[in-house]
Structure formats: C-alpha cells, structure tokens
Specification:
about 10% helix, 1 helix, single chain, about 90 residues, alpha+beta
Length: about 90
C-alpha cells in the first residue's frame, strides 16, 4: 500500500494555478484523477479529462453532509503529525 504523508502549517495560495494538486490513485496504483485545492474550493479532473470540475467550499460541505459517510480518521490507520505552531511561519 502506498502511503502519503503531508504536513503543511500554512500555505498561501495566490491563485488556482499555484494551488497544490494531488494525483489520486486506487489501491493498484492506477490514476483515478487529480485533485486541486484552492482558496475558493476544490477542482477535480477525472483521469483522461481535459477540464476540471469545481465545487466551492460551501458546495463541497453540502455534498459531504448529504452523501458523506461518518467515519473516524482512526479507521484509516492515520496518525496525525504533531501540532505545529503557526507562529513559526
């Protein structure tokens, strides 16, 4: 199983072109799509698509509330990084 560890205390995103993008794969390593996180919301580009789909943060929250399945982060065997002081940035 591939593991990804990412801890970012603070990240300034000037515009969507500089927003962090994550390649999303399934358990076999096949690409599912790309997820880009910006100030205004999230962008999703399914594998093979030329254009992204966009949800504002409020629409994403509504979608999670409507369709999301409650789970504890611990169910994913995730250990969060230690707390970081934002004063360091």
């Amino acid at each position: 199983m591939t593991k990804v560890h990412l801890a970012v205390g603070k990240l300034e995103v000037a515009n969507v072109q500089t927003a962090p993008e994550f390649r999303v794969t399934d358990d076999s390593g096949s690409v599912i799509g790309d997820l880009r996180v910006s100030k205004g919301g999230v962008f999703w580009r399914p594998r093979g698509a030329e254009k992204y789909l966009h949800l504002t943060w409020s629409k994403l929250e509504a979608a999670f509330k409507e369709r999301g399945e409650p789970k504890s982060v611990g169910e994913y065997n995730y250990t969060p990084p230690p707390p970081v002081s934002f004063d360091e940035f």
